[in-house]
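User: Before I run my own analysis I want an independent prediction to cross-check against. Here's the chain; please return only the structure tokens and, at the end, one sentence I can use as a sanity check.
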Amino acid sequence: MFSVTSCSCARARASGSSALVEHAWASLFYLQNWAMAFGAANYQAAEASTASPFQHFWSLSVQGQVFILWPILLLGTAAAARLTGIPFRALATVMFGTIFAASLAFSIRETAAHQSFAYFDTRTRLWEFALGSLLALALPYLRPGMLPRIVLGWVGLAAILLCGAVIQVVNQFPGWAALIPTLGAAMVITAGRTGHRLGADRVLTAGPVRKLGRISYALYLWHWRI
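Assistant: Structure tokens:
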């Protein structure tokens, strides 16, 4: 009995070590999200005994993939603008608008059908980056007055803070539910620094909040039990 138990434990340790090496390589090459997706990991219910110390880097892997893809798309758009004479901004808006719509539709469908896989799937997350790109393209032309900016700031901040408390993110992300915090972030960015005593930026630029922002990613890496 002791021998069988010892062999089982040894095999379990070997399997765990092999998985750990695989996750290390996946993180190194910004593929950790796919390793998590194909491993059918449950992000919200990861157990301390099975969690990988590299699993936190799944979101960084998605970002790394986008940081490679986006410049390629922008270079292609710039080349198309030169060939067609169509303004770069117009072509970029159409491109990112198409990515936003297609990725969001895919995200909603896949989240409903295979949520545990969709959570880590790069394709279900591209619309979030596309939304930021669309906002960057539109910001120079957005000139809301002081009152709308104040309202946008507070509504956006509330959407970000209340998202996890109001929405069951365990089985609804990243589909339509992810629109709430991302649109909230877009509102806060659009509001900008109002300088008004009633503006949300008065809170967001406070010393303690800025210090928290500087260590926010480290806090994210820490929050999942391992």
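Sanity check: Residues 27-223 form one domain.
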